Amino acid sequence: MTSLDAVTAWVANYERAWASNDPEEIGALFAEDAAYFPEPWAKPWRGRSEIVTKWLARRDDPETWSFSWHPLIVTEELAIIEGDTRYPKQHYSNLWVLRLDQSGQARQFTEWWMDQAQSS
């Protein structure tokens, strides 16, 4: 069941894993059989092991980014999160679709992102 408290905790853990690139912290975010869509129509990364491997292949260095977010919708089934990610020379608007299981791990996660440089 998804709740604002569960979503807030998950995003805080996501940010911690993003900053550390620790495989255990990354893996703890996702259910064993989770699906992570790095883009809406991309082939999903399936299962915790593949998610950790693919995440680490695209990892960001610590302290090279900032992230802010707020929930748009939180229901029992899903959360939709609006985010803002900034790197030294890039700026992205994000929309995340998150489905949590009963333990607070993501069973499905989809990232929608737009490069702000493309909108100028």
Task: Please describe the structure with a list of short key phrases separated by commas or semicolons.
six-stranded mixed sheet; alpha+beta; 120 residues
Please explain how this structure is put together.
- This protein has 3 helices and 6 strands.
- It has 120 residues and is α+β, with helices and mostly antiparallel strands.
- It has one domain: Nuclear Transport Factor 2, Chain: A, CATH 3.10.450.
- The protein has a 6-stranded mixed β-sheet with strand order 2-1-6-5-4-3.
- The mean pLDDT is 95.
Helix content: 25-40%
Q: Secondary-structure element sequence? A: HHEEHEEEE
Span from first to last CA? Answer: 39 Å
CATH architecture: Roll
Strand residue percentage: 35-45%
User: Which class do the helix and strand fractions yield?
Assistant: alpha+beta
Strand order of the largest sheet: 2-1-6-5-4-3
Q: What Rg, in angstroms, do the CA atoms define?
A: 14 Å
- Mean pLDDT, to the nearest integer, reads 95
**Unreliable stretches, pLDDT < 50, 5 or more residues?**
none
* Number of helices in the DSSP assignment: 3
The number of distinct β-strands equals: 6
**CATH secondary-structure class:** Alpha Beta
CATH topology: Nuclear Transport Factor 2, Chain: A
Largest sheet: 6 strands, mixed
Domain count: the total is 1
Looking at the structure, what is the overall shape?
globular
